[in-house]
Amino acid sequence: MTPTTTAPAPLQHTAFHQFHVDHGGKMVDFAGWDMPLHYGSIIDEHNQVRRSGGMFDVSHMGRVRFSGRDARRFLEHVCTRQIFDMTATKAAAAGMMCWSIAWARTSSSWW
Asked: Tens of pLDDT along 14-66?
């Protein structure tokens, strides 16, 4: 009996993938996503962020949906931003443990 092997699945790309490639990102497999490891010198990157800012591509991270009668109350408890004033189809930075965006899909359904 011959063991069978399957080809690895192609890496997924974020919306910023082409930007990373065009700007010299050293792309690596990060949990199935083609993500930049660095853009050259780590010291140069550090200094650039300290001088003017940087960007961290979070579009490969998970999405969680909360829905139901108490979804808003739960998110109000775990988010650092007030949720009660958000209306349907509005999104806002809402930091939980790290970084997150809360999106009110309807009055009882949230991403």
From this structure: 888 999 999 999 999 988 899 999 888 989 989 988 999 887 777 677 667 77
In a domain, 102, yes or no: yes
Task: Give the angle 15-10-54 at the CA atoms, nearest 5°.
Answer: 30
57: which residues sit within 8 A by CB, 6+ positions away? Answer: 14, 16, 20, 35, 36
Between the CA of residue 2 and those of 5, 64, 91, what are the distances in Å? 10, 41, 53
| Domain housing 42 | 17-51
Asked, for residue 35, whether it belongs to a domain, the answer is yes
* Full-model pTM: 0.51
Q: Say if CB 73 and CB 29 are below 8 A apart.
A: no
